Amino acid sequence: MELAGLSVREDAVGNIFGRWDGLEPELAAVATGSHIDAIPYSGKYDGVVGVLGAIEAIRVLKRSGFKPRRPLEVISFTSEEPTRFGIGCLGSRLLAGSEDLANSLKTSTDIQNISFLDAAGSAGYSKNEDDLSSVFLKKGTYSAFVELHIEQGPILEDEGISIGIVTAIAAPASLTVEFEGNGGHAGAALMPNRNDAGLAASELALAVERHVLDSGSIDTVGTVGILELHPGAINSIPSKSHLEIDTRDIDEERRNKVVEKIHQSAIKITKTRGVKLSDFRVINQDPPAISDEAVIKAVETATKELNLTSKLMISRAYHDSLFMARLSPMGMIFIPCYKGYSHKPEEFATIEDMSNGVKVLALTLAKLSSQ
Amino acid sequence: MELAGLSVREDAVGNIFGRWDGLEPELAAVATGSHIDAIPYSGKYDGVVGVLGAIEAIRVLKRSGFKPRRPLEVISFTSEEPTRFGIGCLGSRLLAGSEDLANSLKTSTDIQNISFLDAAGSAGYSKNEDDLSSVFLKKGTYSAFVELHIEQGPILEDEGISIGIVTAIAAPASLTVEFEGNGGHAGAALMPNRNDAGLAASELALAVERHVLDSGSIDTVGTVGILELHPGAINSIPSKSHLEIDTRDIDEERRNKVVEKIHQSAIKITKTRGVKLSDFRVINQDPPAISDEAVIKAVETATKELNLTSKLMISRAYHDSLFMARLSPMGMIFIPCYKGYSHKPEEFATIEDMSNGVKVLALTLAKLSSQ
């Protein structure tokens, strides 16, 4: 299959690769890309700019008559958002060789009890069901990986800077927690006789915030994005609660300390409220990634040659680049977005900023593919 | 239509009435009944015992050769639980002549945006859509109303008593609350820049508990049975939260003070967290109901004649009787239930206890219908 002048292949989980063979096609390729999936009620720039932008960057290079020495590859990663199967960067995590994920996906199901393998099968993927490790890429497959992305924070817009050059990606940890109590009728059960799983969840949510603020660093963040009560009726004391917690830092140890404190708080709540901690699981707890010096240099030089302002910065959101860094030297190019908004419909980037990002990406790919 | 020897009619919202004409059918009837709907993941005794038990009580009286002076009516009330349209005792509230409810139901919708009128229409009811006040009953329609119900609390079982005779029903208030914030990406938005609608909800849930405990009376209860976050993704800061709060007391003024304190806490949270209180509504705030002396007397006498132990008690749960008390003298008969469990699958009453309840109800109906 060919698309935008690239030869296209898909792997067994839906990662899509478009390849432009270089003058020396046997060399390791330079890769770029991002994702096109989104969370519910999201915007349309997160990820998408880095896939369409990558295709456009290749078209720019082709139009200019450029001939790459190394092959260039555009990757559209599958399931970057954790929405359906609870794990972020599913596609790039597998490419980077996560045996744990390849195993756990054999039995993963979504909220409607559809298995990952059935979902992938229905979408036409996963012909090789029994062994998702077929998706793994070898180290050395790529000589470099660069991802173009909106900042998802307010810094570039606030400071009027066109390009952010990412030096490190903050390390995310995701937790899933469940409390259980006896439930009961909201009128008949007196307060001293209750063990309300919903109030246990509220208490833990506020404890997450407290532990994050106590870390002493502005770089520590923590969020309870999911808090669900069962049975969820106004006149019923919650007998179960389910929380999903996300906490991140550029300092792995400091973040792990927050995770440990959240665990201690959950245990303490079981004692004070008489509820059961029926689940406390660390779904993922990834190390941060450091960008490669040579890739940073290539982006910096491209930015200067294009007369654009730039700034070295940390990515507080994580990206497929976090996992591609396990396979190859990695770098990221950020562009400003409106008020730093992301993961909501107001997410926006101007055509000028996207155009600047594509130009920097194209020139960076040209440089890296010549090395 | 006839069922179990009763002539049956339905009204425009699905209340079902089964009538046994007495020797003097022009007299006001004695009524009994309850509901057969349930909350999600509920038990099968709450309400149902009072409908099937009422039918059985009538059969007992018929088998015994008894001829009532006044007519006897069994009522199966529609939508006692507030699950679908957010308002408890929808059927009996309308029978009791709630103009507010008759008006608001014209525009009420469920969570899937299906209107009350469409839902009633699909179920074959509400031929008289434009005027639900057609359902209202006149004061004096019934000379007395008695409801048989499981206690939904542990007292009768704990004390080994067969029959609870209800002297008053605690007064429920229901609130719906919504907070709104800016949402955003769980990694990119730093903690000081957040206004997390989910944490606002958790804080209010804990404030509800605090205000209830501060009332100084064991009779005050409060519950957050519904707490929902939007968009509900692990990597997204909640931009909206929705709570439904239930608080009850046998003292109306004390309960209204709790409602006022919850409102003050919600306003305070908007200031400390920078969120918007986009909704704060008292859905219902009903006065308590006092049982009628003559009905209490009839139940007490019936219990004694049957050699059963009994106890005068308060109903902390509310029931259709709360609204039937607006139409006619009212009383309730409680039977023990396992560990006081209700609104969950473990809800249970023994055949012996249900049988005792039915006998007491039958004898009470016999007495009241002869007066």
TrEMBL record, chains A, B:
Domain Peptidase M20 dimerisation: 173-264
InterPro entries: Amidase_Cbmase, Bact_exopeptidase_dim_dom, Peptidase_M20, Peptidase_M20_dimer
Pfam families: M20_dimer, Peptidase_M20
Keyword Manganese: yes
Signal peptide: none
CDD domains found in the cross-reference section: M20_bAS
Key words of the record: Hydrolase, Manganese, Metal-binding, Purine metabolism
Biological process annotations from GO: purine nucleobase metabolic process
This protein's record includes keyword Transport: no
UniProt GO MF annotations: hydrolase activity, acting on carbon-nitrogen (but not peptide) bonds, in linear amidines; metal ion binding
Cofactors required: Mn(2+)
Assembly information from the UniProt record: Homodimer.
PANTHER family xrefs: ALLANTOATE DEIMINASE-RELATED
Annotated protein name in UniProt: Peptidase M20 dimerisation domain-containing protein
Annotated organism of origin: Glycine max
